[in-house]
Amino acid sequence: MKAKSLIGVAVAGLAGVAVRDLTQKKHALKRNFPVIAHARYALERVGPELRQYIVTSNDEDRPFSRDQRSWVYASSKKENNYVGFGTDNDVEHLENYPIVKHRTFSPSAPSTAVAHGHADDELSLPSAKVLGGPRGRTHAFRPSSVVNVSAMSFGALSGPAIEALNRGAALAGAMHNTGEGGLSEHHRKGGDLIFQIGTAYFGCRDEQGRFDLARLVDLVQSAPVRAIEVKLSQGAKPGLGGLLPAAKITEEISAIRGIPMGVDCASPSRHSEFDSVDSMLDWVERVADATGLPVGIKSAVGELDFWEHLAQEMSSRTRGVDFVTVDGGEGGTGAAPLVFTDSVALPYRVGFARVYAEFAKAGLTDDLTFIGSGKLGLPANALVAFALGADMLNVAREAMLAVGCIQSQKCHTDHCPTGVATQNPWLVRGLDPTLKSVRLANYLQTLRRDLLKVSESCGVAHPGLIDADAVEILDGNRRGTALREVYGYEPGWGSLGPALTEEITSIMWPQRDLDTEAPESTTATA
């Protein structure tokens, strides 16, 4: 009788836990998998102890290590993301390990209160460049955040996940790229948008699937679209059109994209509106004239003929793109064949350096904005990207982690356990977009704050002023090579020109005497 009583108490207790899990909204995993989800959190808590004897170290998991995921999670929850007892990276033996060199003196000594989180409302980290300014676009503007949410389509991600990203971007003063899947109601929650046009022209195509400029104009006027990005390729599957499996196509997605139900949605691998750099630039100018918006391109990097030709065509300054988003081959939230994921397109640093060099040789680096994408939502990677010449960063998988992703790597199966990358109604219900939007905003603000901390350590006002001489790549503890030398940069490459340097410094350090001579690393021209 006593045993039955204990069993009854246990069952009642578990039932109580299940009810609480199903009704709470803070944790999507518990809401979707009541009771058993607690095992995951219990294992996470004792993970460091277990890993001393079994499984993996903090830095072995891929694509994001346990340390990296923990940093994103802690940042998104506004928890303590500091570490103690020194680095657990094997700096004595690791190759290609980046080190940012701090500076002893600087022309100004700003308060570090903002950088250390004591004045969140004062934290501002705008772009050093005006998007669309050099080409005189009607709606040119200075982005208020150097870190923004990368292109992830509604369809690939769930509606609540898209809503969380958009609301979070609005809270953080960042922009949200729609991805090529069209502009849905989930994108209309207050965040500024970059509308992406892919090869299938979702959201701006006619009944035959052809690009329709009038529909594009109507669409961007109906939402807070600040810029247009033309996707040529992406890191996950460069040169291969996107694929949305039939299982993930709902009636809502079907209506937004203009595609049938029950059939895999395969986008073309190339654009039908242009077939050369010359015709692409004509089309870009046509879109920019009709909308008044800055227009740029996104691409992974393979052969360089395209980039050489683009820089040559833009040298006359009569036509051109307003920004270039370089996507690394190691990045990508979309599902792709293994060979594409592993072996097609250059990784970010190599690809970006080659693209930047083409525009630097043509003297155009101050004339357009460079945006980096591909695992750059971690402070160390972001700083190397800025040192190579990036002006802004787009984050995708890190943003997914911030809104609940646990790196289960089931994005392509429609069985994402936290409701981020699935259209399964049961799994989607676990993700509360209002709560998760705050997590994203916290993460974006924390990343910007860390970038500001390191900028101040280097004696400059903005991460865009950290140049290729401020970073070394270590070969274990034997030697270090300047980033400039590693990637073959000439003097001045990776740096802003004098006018842009002075402008962003005066924005970030308004109290500074602008007649004071700037550090040598901030005065080189590109």
Question: What this model shows, in words?
Answer:
The chain is an alpha/beta fold and 526 residues long. It has a domain at 147-459: TIM Barrel (Alpha-Beta Barrel). Helices cover 36% and strands 11% of the residues. The chain has helices at 2-23, 28-32, 37-51, 66-76, 159-172, 213-221, 251-257, 277-291, 305-314, 338-343, 348-361, 379-388, 397-402, 425-428, 433-457, 483-486, 498-508, and strands at residues 95-100, 147-149, 175-177, 192-197, 225-231, 243-244, 265-266, 295-300, 323-327, 369-373, 392-395, 471-475, 479-482. It has an eight-stranded parallel β-sheet with strand order 2-11-10-9-8-5-4-3. The chain has a three-stranded antiparallel β-sheet with strand order 1-12-13. Helix 12 links the parallel strand 10 and strand 11 (392-395). Helix 4 (66-76) crosses helix 15 (433-457). It is globular and about 85 Å long. The chain starts with a helix and ends in an 18-residue tail after the last helix. Residues 514-526 have low confidence and may be disordered. GO terms for molecular function: glutamate synthase activity. This is Glutamate synthase.
In short:
By secondary structure, the protein is α/β, with parallel strands linked by helices. It has helices at 2-23, 28-32, 37-51, 66-76, 159-172, 213-221, 251-257, 277-291, 305-314, 338-343, 348-361, 379-388, 397-402, 425-428, 433-457, 483-486, 498-508, and strands at residues 95-100, 147-149, 175-177, 192-197, 225-231, 243-244, 265-266, 295-300, 323-327, 369-373, 392-395, 471-475, 479-482. Strand 4, helix 6 (213-221) and strand 5 (225-231) form a beta-alpha-beta unit.
